Amino acid sequence: MFIGREKELDELDKMYNSDKFEFVVIYGRRRVGKTALITHFINDKNNIYFMGVESNEKQNLENFSKSIMEYSSKIETDSYFATFQSALEHVFKLAEDERIILAMDEYPYVARESKSLASTLQLLIDKYKNTSKLMLILCGSSMSYMEDNVLAYKSPLYGRRTAQMKILPFTFEETCRYFKNMSEEDKALMYGIVGGTPQYILQMDDNLSVEDNVKNTYLNPMSFLYEEPVNLLKQEVREPAIYTSIITAIATGCSRMSEISTKVGQNTNVCSSYIKNMINLGIIKKETPYGEKESRKSIYLIDDNMFRFWYRFVLQNSSIIARGGADLVYKRISTMFSNYMGNVFEDICTQYLWNQLLRGNSPIEFVSLGRWWGNNPKLRCQTEIDIMGEQDSNAALFAECKWRNENVDLDVLETLIMRSNLFHYKKVHYYIFSKTGFTKVCLEKSKEMKNVTLVSYSDIVREYHELE
To answer: Which of 312, 335, 358 is the last residue before a domain boundary?
Structure first.
């Protein structure tokens, strides 16, 4: 099943229909759906598709030659091109007479072994860009390689591309489209459990309950997801054991660098280097209090919900799971889902606020959103605000998110107002998000104030349904 990616497909179609040379760079982390996007796009078009493998130059050149042979009948079927330059030049010449898409998937595997490939592409692009109707797509999962060796200024290919696409995991709104047969609450739970990575979403069955899905995947030693985080790390890094210990530390509550290094047993410089790599991979994210660029108060969180769930609930129960204790483990971990969903709901609410802004429905035209935490000098204690966003020095919004099975009362609004007074904005708007709804007194107070928006989870999903 192919879902989402409408914007990317529209942009690719525009470039394809230009009927002139186009060069698109597509990159993003593994499992995010890059290959699915490309194959869906080229399905009904003249195309040469080639996927690089982790092998030597000779093997990749033979595979590339075969891909060209499958398209072109002008080559003897038992011959191979002698070099990548001759193979690529043949494709560029073919495209002088007709529109052809050449998609080179997992380009880093090929380019690492064929050191001159980027320079060869540069040479041929400059030679044929005014006469060839080729649409060239280079795709890669190694984010650092694609950014440093394809997109960066030092790359021979710099300035040749006509577009680039960084493919990100699905938003909550997009993820909901796959879980159509589930209840609205279960859709949020599934987003919290697998996140928006298409390959992980496809492991789930929306005709089953959340419980059955978790048991069939995370709690099943034979399933794809059971060892996925470890397998993914082995593909991306050299020392997966240290990475695993760092992620485990963060998943179990260590968020500051000093706490992480103590838990792992490595100094902060070592941990900082590993964490930087995981930030580049989209596994970990660094947060500073909203409005502060660099701060000693910075914390580190797991940015991918699949990793968050696995390291929070699966790893510590792996011995029981291996012995067939799925029922026992699920009973143990399900009682913690409500607490676990707190951060997930904040993410869902943040996405909702961005959607409101982009659709022209936000009372505050903020430029960014984030969480804030710091000292309350009046109460002499630490405090935090779930979401805040500043339009300018005079206007901002503040939001509180509550994922709990009871209606939000007036005290939540009053607390948010009190915390917002730590700042000095002339125009302020408040958002309160609730899983279930709001008490009568809270509803009445929000109407009276006129700068308060109360949003229940059902309001969020209802609006998404209306937009489908």
So the answer is: 335
